[in-house]
Amino acid sequence: DETGIGFWSAASLARYLHTGVSPIGRAADGDMAEVIRNTSQMSTKDVGAMALYLKYLPAVSKPAPHMPAPNYTDEVVMLKDMVQVSARLPVSAASAFEVGKPATVVSSKAVWLDAKDIGQSGNAPGKLLGGAQVTVKAREGDRLQLVLKGWQVEETPSVIYQARGQRVMMAVLDDAAADKVVRGKPEQDADTGQRWMPVTLEVWSDATGMNADRGAVWAYGKDVYQKACSSCHVLPQQGHFTANQWVGTLKSMRRFTSFSDDQYRLILSYLQNHSKDLHDDGTSGSGHGGK
Asked: What average pLDDT does this structure show over 272-282?
């Protein structure tokens, strides 16, 4: 409700004053952390008395500035002015990308096979997904030629994955783009029996929606993951699940978040790249290749 702690029991309040951990698993911070440092040294009896006192204080109605009054009825009330706020993603300026240097895709971006086709109407022949790492091969103004290296399952030429045996998607392709993929010698995965091939694809795109610092992308993913997911439950460590297990795990929780598609894809890539069986420390080339 609007009082913040109005739904907590006296026991929950006492536990919070003693440990600093709320009923939904969030730790106290800011000014409240200083309060907890003091109350945590009090006796159980005194903390319990304080919690009981707080529980029965009359509620204060003080909505945030410019916010409508709370609705306590069963009537559904629509706000008059709804503003759609886009998530701020960690992207670099176009000037940050240098020939021969790596870049990380932040928001899903269309790619073409020829520089002259960039931005043309109609479906692009391919799309790079958040978390994919590429190398800038050439630059013509704000148009970049990008080299993507990864792996493909032999029978699935339309998808490029980051590592052999790992469902960390980096790109999806139409038939024209799939025909341009340079494929190496197939290798059989011991766990699944599937045949995987190392692949390389050269494409063109604009200089938007990427970051020249892979470590900054992972820092963003970690921050959003910790803040959003800890509001409902205690966070599992990234290394608790394998890269493949994170796909279903994060998908099952998405409905409880307000992630945009690009945020979701980027956070999934962060978790997969810091999972039990795949680790990318943010340096050039790390996290790629076979098992």
From this structure: 86
Per-domain boundaries in the chain: 1-66, 94-211, 214-272
- What does residue 200 show for φ and ψ, rounded to 5 degrees? -135, 140
Of 55-59, 132-136, 158-162, the poorest mean pLDDT is in 55-59
Question: Is residue 233 over pLDDT 80?
Answer: no
Tokens encoding 149: 């290296």
* 40: three-class secondary structure by DSSP: coil
* Residue 168 in this model has a pLDDT that exceeds 60: yes
Cβ proximity of 107 and 209 under 8 Å? yes
Query: Using an 8 Å Cβ cutoff, are 278 and 243 in contact?
Result: yes
- State the SS3 of 52-113: HHHHCCCCCCCCCCCCCCCCCCCCCCCCCCCCCCCCCCCCCCHHHCCCCCEEEECCCEEEEC
Could you tell me the two tokens for 254? 């998405």
**Cα within 13 Å of Cα(258), Cβ side:** 6
**CA–CA separation, 10 and 155 (whole Å):** 60
> Cβ neighbours of residue 243 under 8 Å, at least 6 residues apart?
163, 166, 167, 168, 272, 273, 275, 276, 277, 278
Residue 226: which H helix or E strand, with range? helix 214-229
Whether the pTM exceeds 0.90: the reply is no
